[in-house]
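Budget justification note: compute hours in this period were largely spent on complex prediction jobs such as the one shown. Inputs:
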Amino acid sequence: MSARSALAVLVLLFAAACQSRGPEAGVVHVALDGSPPAATVIRVSGLSGAELRALAAANLDGHAWDPILTITVAGGAETPVTGHVTITSTAIEFRPAFPFDPGRPYTVRVNPESPPLHRGEAPTVVTLATPAAGHAASTAVTAMFPSGDVWPENMLRFYVHFSAPMSRGGGTRFVHLLDQSGAEIPDAILAAFSDLWNQDATRLTVFLDPGRVKRGIGPNVKMGRALVRGHRYTMTIDPAWPDAQGQPLAAPFRKAFTAGPAAYAALATNTWRLSAPRAGTRDALTVTFPAPLDRALLDRAIGVEDASGNAVAGQTGVRAQETEWTFVPSSPWRSGDFRLVALTLLEDPVGNKIGRAFEVLTDSPAAGATNPDLARVPFSVR
Amino acid sequence: MRLSWKLGAVMVLVVAAASAPTATRLVPAAVAPQLKSIGPLMFGPGGVLYAADREAATIFALDLGAQASSGTSGAVGVEKLDEKIAGMLGTTASAIALTDLAVNPVSHNAFVSVMRGQGAEAKPALVRIDGAGKLDLINFDTVSFTSVALPNPAAVSPNGRGGRTQSVTDMALVDGRLVVAGLSNEEFASKLWSVPYPFTTTDRGTSVEIYHGNHGQFETRAPVMTFLPYRAANQSMIVAAYTCTPLVKFSLDALKPGDKVVGHTMMDLGAGNQPIDMIQYAKGGQNFLLMANSRYGVIKVPTAQFATAPDITAKVETAGTFEPVAAMTGIEQLDLLDAQRSAAIARAQDGSRSLAVTALP
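Corresponding output:
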């Protein structure tokens, strides 16, 4: 019975009950009504009108219901499920604080001996379940960024993309960095931040331990970096990683790469090459960087404005292993002067920003310099 | 936990004197907060519960009313806490995550934030554990609240700002301002954001960028994993543990918006060691810091050394004085239960989580 039809039946029963003295005492019956995502209701019927009125008069709340009615996860903890109890003219109704899990069995125990019922009957114990959702393992890793096969040896951050929402928390324990012999490199991944998901839990940000990446602090001195220039590595994703439905991944994922030279320089917009489009077309503006930039930041940190500083509407894209950013305007280019606008928080995968390297010598002028929020690169459309 | 309000008499007095607004009253208050998620928790001195909602990028200040103290005063250890909470929420331990623990400074009941379910279906819950070991689910329908949104950094592209989220790692009240540390899932930002409390619609707070002055050689951005306010030499300080391991201190006096703050290493906790949580307490006339971390479990650090600690300038693996606390293992969240005991969420050998109550070392 759907929640709505159950409600309709209840209204009819209530109308009938109002014209009588309520139901006569019968056999205690427990039923589960409604289906997710609608609120599921456990309904206890078979109580007389007098019994229901006595329960209502007792004004029970919270744990006070435990001697009379408890719902527990079958095979789980004995702690009763928290919920809200209402008394209608025909039944006790229990609504859980959170919808019952699809397919999970719950044990309902009704004790008619307990005050104020005082029936000389043994408790009724029933196990019920809503239908299972029937999920299968189908979620897969769709990409890992940087997508190139050379990662700087001072790599700080990478992204794992999934085809569907994943379970939250503890994700980094399914991410393993292997050396060229296939052995796992310990303490490479920063486990302290294992929950850096995007909103819909389809992209996880993973950091290599910054203590090993940064030069000269304890972990770096003691252990060195996890990546060493010239060595080959594989980043693996364990298929046991549960998705949001609790199912494992459809397949394992491996990305092989070689560690390249460390990147220590600040990003500089004067090293970017712009291919200016022609006026009257919707040709893409293409910006080419000397090295890959952060995949996620490329989506929001660069835009285009006209000579008056107004944003130009259009679609951005990223290609060539994150070394190219493209912009296709919504309307054809007008002849004139434009500017590429970049937030200086734009980083490469190592953490170097526009105008400021990740690591700056403490006594250098760069350490005390104030970095503006925006960088602009002019270009003309003819 | 995310704050010990019992920071020693000096700190409490300073906060009280500098911040008359830090009271239990919420101005303007609404009822029945709609949290999308619940992460770090922290109680203010008057019993206001600050809860970080990462999904909504919002900090809620909650007045729990009678639910803050209607149970038996105090809190006791609870074995298999995760299974018991899961049972209350109608599910099993594998389907929930215990995201933080905070102890109410008035009732000394323990409060545990929980996410039930996964993905977009995950829902927040708050559970109280009282002095009789009884668990109760907090009903948000009667809770009054105010809230403030975390600043959303600029985006110049209209296409791609949907992927950014901001995790909150820790919070504390410092001189009448709520100070929040966190980490973005995109840019490697290392900002401490502070906002006056009670929250107002006109002051959205200010940020300072936190750097790590690395043995006198390099400066790097350094996200803060856990931190505590600390008062020394008549200065308002922050003692913080960075994600890159060191324990540092920096001054928050005379800070202006947009300032750059360089924290200097007092103690290097050693390779492969991640800070998890910390509290401060007094015993035998001395102040100590208790820090949970991934390598040593829990360490006890005398804080008297903080006022005079010179910056570490040599390449050393560890420095400063601390001692491991063998009685505390598997600690994932930590708070001060009362003047003599800590409360913690601890992972047992079988993988279950308990509420552990332990005498302060």
